[in-house]
Design goal:
By secondary structure, the chain is an alpha/beta fold. It has seven helices and 13 strands. The chain is globular and about 50 Å long. The model has no long low-confidence stretch (mean pLDDT 86).
């Protein structure tokens, strides 16, 4: 991340709700700086990129050749070992439901209150002793978000309100305030503008987060403007891929 964007990523976790199987690129971008990743999808356990060091990956993932090509392999020069933990299932903590009710926030996945989590621990080859914790959750993303803290990277792209999407309005005012409160100082928001709230999207100060949403990948775009909100400065660092529009990386710093 530093070599590409020349920015420091603070200590904390990467959280990616409603991710589907979009795990390869976030890991590739942040594996040199982030040691704990949380990928969440309500419909299934997200798939991870294939590890060259994992000699049994074919037995653990039933994939077509096309899927194998899409899910990139991480070489053993980056990840040298893997430890897999047993899956765990539990119900959502009642305190999480109470917090959301008190805040007047409705989750689109409220009907799904059972959490299934799989954890892996990867040995990071470039730095002896460094371990990467990968958590994959099958559950509602908002419920998982409420249980986490010290988020260094909030990653959201490729989600939609229609069929196949979560419909969760992550950038509605009440949830956006929660996001920036959980971000550590200097943390990052990486997004294509998915999760916007169409009822408020025209007038909230953070609308630059989705102003490029829906434009074609080869369009000549001006970088979104920086803005301030809740005693924080949001600085657009640059482009970071493409999904439902150009994905931009935003640095969030306290003033």
């Amino acid at each position: 991340m530093y070599s590409k964007y020349k920015i420091e990523v603070p200590d904390g976790i990467l959280f990616y709700p409603c991710c589907g199987d979009d795990t390869s690129e976030p890991i590739k971008l942040f594996i040199d700086t982030i040691s704990e990743f949380h990928f969440v999808d309500i419909s299934h356990i997200p798939r991870l990129p294939i590890l060259e060091c994992d000699t049994n990956w074919r037995n653990r993932q039933i994939l077509s050749q096309h899927q194998i090509e899409l899910i990139r392999m991480i070489p053993s020069t980056i990840i040298k070992s893997i430890r897999m933990y047993r899956s765990e299932s539990r119900v959502v903590d009642a305190k999480v439901l109470e917090q959301l009710e008190e805040l007047g926030i409705k989750s689109t996945g409220d009907r799904i209150r059972v959490i299934t989590t799989r954890k892996e621990e990867w040995g990071y080859a470039p730095k002896e002793g460094r371990k990467i914790q990968i958590y994959r959750h099958k559950q509602d993303g908002l419920f998982k978000f409420m249980e986490l803290d010290k988020i260094a990277v909030f990653f959201l792209r490729g989600d939609s309100p229609g069929e196949g999407g979560s419909g969760q309005k992550w950038f509605q005012p009440k949830i956006f305030d929660l996001i920036i409160n959980k971000l550590v100082d200097g943390g990052l928001i990486v997004t294509d503008g998915s999760g916007l709230d169409y009822e408020t999207s025209d007038y909230v100060p953070w609308r630059p987060l989705w102003e490029r949403k829906g434009e074609s990948w080869n369009a000549i775009l001006k970088k979104p403007i920086d803005f301030k909100y809740k005693n924080r400065k949001f600085t657009c660092i640059g482009e970071c891929g493409y999904r439902y529009g150009t994905v931009y990386l935003w640095k969030v710093e306290q003033l």
